[in-house]
Specification:
Blueprint lengths: L1 H18 L18 E8 L6 H20 L8 E8 L4 H13 L4 E5 L2 H14 L3 E3 L13 E3 L4 H14 L5 E7 L3 H17 L2 E8 L8 H10 L3 E4 L3 H13 L5 E4 L6 H5 L11 E4 L10 H12 L5 H20 L8 H9 L3 E4 L2 E4 L11 E6 L2 E4 L5
Parallel strand pairs: 1-2, 1-3, 4-5, 6-7, 6-8, 8-9, 9-10
Antiparallel strand pairs: 10-13, 11-12, 13-14
Helix pairs in contact: 2-11, 3-4, 5-6, 11-12
Length: 392
């Protein structure tokens, strides 16, 4: 009934606009006009504020996937995709409000939130509705705490483990320093698993420095401790905004180390600014996505994203792009429509049966909601991300 009412209201609005001389509204994600065969995928992310780069990437990645699907004739006998991402400013309360608005508008499945805090808040609503949630980038453990919740990105502890293993396996460093945000769950989770795995791998943690969201612009004390420690690598399980401050201040302090982060570091090129871009040379970050990969569908995705948005996609865009294709695959596997009484549960069950060859790897999901795929690393070289395997 929710879906039928939303469609009735949409139809009434279209008739009203036509009568007044207007045209039919174009739907986001590429369909020329909404029809009753529309899979409405809704999500939230910070489109304004300090972390807007993440939400913008998710929005653009999701909309590009929808546009491609619709341009190719849709799926499942004439169905199209409507991808809609609302601004939540990385705030849980705003994310819940946006979710409620889209639910009332007829949302069928949700991408949850872009950032972990917002995504966790949405899971509390989605579980009540038994709605399938597939977050592109909510990495905290609780983002998949319910049976209806899945993710495309790696969970925080997995990222810390993969990062420590990559550093050891590729002999990137032996002495490691850490600067982390002890007021942030994302940062704490990454640091914890990294430290545990580093110890198992024989990596020496020579400095472990913290800051909070009340002291996240001046890192002189932490950088001095890192410099005195003799570290050859600085692990940054933090977001790009704070990392940009650290990298620029490290240069002024005369600190010569390799900077290594995880998905939160994506966006560093934008945050550090054009004037300081040379300082980002050699920065490494763990990722399941490398834009210079020669594999499909990464090549076509990267080319299409550049053509549409004028910039190289990051892993947030790639995760969202893959999420839309995964939800379409689940829809086709489920064999039901949103009007069917068992639609929600059928979609959740279908996630456990699909396999998606995406830009971030070949993915399958189990009841934990975690993706089974491989991780790699990219290095910033000449102002762009280069796969570690392709570094000159």
């Amino acid at each position: 009934m929710k879906k039928l009412m939303a469609l009735f209201l949409a139809a009434a609005m279209m008739v009203s606009m036509t009568a007044c001389g207007g045209s039919e509204p174009a739907a986001e994600g590429g369909n020329a006009a909404e029809t009753e065969k529309v899979l409405f995928i809704g999500g939230t992310g910070p489109l304004t504020g300090d972390y807007a780069t993440y939400g913008t990437s998710v929005k653009q990645g999701a909309e590009l996937a929808a546009a491609e699907i619709n341009a190719n004739g849709g799926f499942a006998d004439g169905w199209t995709v409507l991808a809609r991402v609302e601004d939540d400013q990385a705030d849980g309360a705003q994310a819940v409000q946006a979710y409620a608005t889209m639910f009332d508008d007829g949302m069928d499945v949700t991408l949850g939130g872009t950032t972990s805090g917002a995504c966790i808040a949405i899971t509390e609503e989605a579980v009540k509705d038994n709605m399938l949630l597939l977050t592109p980038s909510g990495s905290q453990l609780e983002c998949t705490q319910y049976d209806n919740c899945f993710r495309v990105c790696f969970e925080d502890s997995a990222q810390g483990l993969y990062a420590a293993n990559f550093i050891k396996d590729n002999a990137v460093a032996e002495k490691v320093a850490i600067i982390y945000d002890k007021s942030n769950d994302y940062s704490n989770g990454l640091r914890k698993s990294f430290v545990e795995t580093a110890a198992e791998n024989g990596l020496e943690i020579v400095a472990d420095e913290a800051f909070t969201n009340q002291s996240n612009t001046d890192f002189s004390v932490q950088l001095q401790a890192v410099k005195e420690s003799g570290a050859d690598l600085l692990f940054l399980p933090i977001y790009a905004q704070e990392a940009a401050y650290i990298i620029t201040q490290a240069d002024k302090a005369g600190l010569d180390v390799t900077f290594f982060g995880c998905d939160g570091l994506d966006g560093i090129l934008e945050k550090i600014g054009a004037d300081n871009l040379p300082l980002a040379e050699g920065v490494m970050l763990l990722t399941p996505f490398a834009a210079d990969s020669e594999t499909e569908p990464t090549k076509s995705f990267t080319a299409n994203y550049k053509a549409k948005y004028g910039t190289t996609p990051d892993q947030f865009a790639a995760d969202a792009y893959d999420a839309v294709y995964a939800l379409v695959a689940a829809f086709e596997k489920a064999g039901v429509t949103p009007e069917d009484e068992n639609f929600n549960q059928a979609m959740i069950d279908a996630m456990l049966e699909i396999e998606v060859v995406g830009t971030t790897g070949t993915m399958r999901w189990d009841a934990s909601g975690e993706p089974d795929k491989n991780a790699t690393a990219v290095v910033i070289q000449d102002g762009v991300y280069v796969s570690y395997d392709n570094v000159k």
